[in-house]
């Protein structure tokens, strides 16, 4: 019984021990001097052109979501500084993700775009090519057109760009908590450690 109670006590102390070990400059960087406001949020910044982001989406996104503390939201934002199919293709894919979110088909479209780019080697240099992918995955052309011109899509893309610039993101995938703390991914040794760090930063002011 004494041994069992010792194990339980150790498990209870684990989150505090992890939190005490997390250091600015090693495990995370401060990317904004603004105070933390609103609901705690973990935002993944990614690009459809990034193969590491594709693997991250397939392997880690769902486990990360499931390990976040109660009340901590998970969001995604697309960066526009990777342009494989033309000077503006990164921005077009940002808009594609925003359209998918407005139409509530982001899970389907996200993996369809990743697969088309990295597995099928398709090009998305034009909006018509992006629209066709939506249609191929069950979205009507009229619904796509309405969403593409909508205020929510424009606002979402504008916010992603603003946050991308203000945070100074240069590589993806990147995880930023509460628009203030960027995780140093190279310092993380396990998914459990990542969960501990994300939940620690989510409550940090």
Question: Can you put this structure into words, describing what you see?
Answer:
With about 200 residues, the protein is α+β, with helices and mostly antiparallel strands. The chain is about 55% helix and about 10% strand. The chain has nine helices and five strands; from the N terminus they run αββααβαααααββα. The protein has helices at about 1-20, 50-60, 60-65, 90-100, 105-120, 125-135, 140-150, 150-165, 190-200; strands at about 30, 40-45, 75-80, 175, 180-185. A five-stranded mixed beta sheet has the order 1-5-4-2-3, sandwiched between helices. The longest helix has 20 residues, at about 1-20. It starts with a helix and ends with a helix. The relative contact order is 0.20.
Provide a quick synopsis of the model:
This protein is α+β, with helices and mostly antiparallel strands. It has 9 helices and 5 strands. The chain has helices at about 1-20, 50-60, 60-65, 90-100, 105-120, 125-135, 140-150, 150-165, 190-200, and strands at about 30, 40-45, 75-80, 175, 180-185.
Keywords for this entry:
disordered N terminus; five-stranded mixed beta sheet; 9 helices; 205 residues; alpha+beta; globular
Mean pLDDT: 90
Can you summarize the main beta sheet? 5 strands, mixed
Strand order of the largest sheet: 1-5-4-2-3
Oligomeric nature of the chains: single chain
Number of H- or I-type helical stretches: 9
The total beta strand count reads: 5
Class per helix and strand makeup: alpha+beta
Radius of gyration: 19 Å
The poorly predicted ranges are 1-18
Q: What letter string, H or E per element, gives the SSE order?
A: HEEHHEHHHHHEEH
Overall shape: globular
Question: What is the beta-strand fraction?
Answer: 5-15%
Give the N-to-C terminal Cα separation. Answer: 39 Å
Query: Into which percent range does the helicity of residues fall?
Result: 40-55%
